[in-house]
Model the fold of this input.
Amino acid sequence: MHEVLKKFSAQYIEHLNDPKISCYSLHYLEIEPGFPPSTYNPRLMELGDKIMLIYDWKIFFDILDKSMENNGFRFSRKKVEYYDPKKFNGDITLHHKDSHFCWQNEYRILIAPTSNQPIKLPIKGLKKISCIIDSKYLKSLRVEIKTESNI
Done:
């Protein structure tokens, strides 16, 4: 039997019917000034026609964290850790994902406790640090950093 099981690989996945944690995903886009996004993948176009670009992620997460705390939510947020299910031998959390999906370059936010209803969180100041663009322009996106002296 050991010869049959020698090449066997499995992973246990449980799908909850009534989850108490909501999962929200962001694409972590890495852009150097004057260059195309280094994490761009054409498959991103499958995710929707519009995207919201957040210019200042530090301010965004500060506002988001305060809003979640003020509304009594517990949360966890970080970049997804991609792993090879055929080689990985360790604990898997809700911040892990099969390496097959690494093109998504996902940043995941987990919020609890929740019901099966969408969560509405006030994020004051979001219009000052973000904009909505058509997804088709993502590949040609370039960033320019301006200082007070060249504005």
Summary: The first helix runs from residue 2 to 5. DSSP finds two helices and seven strands in the chain.
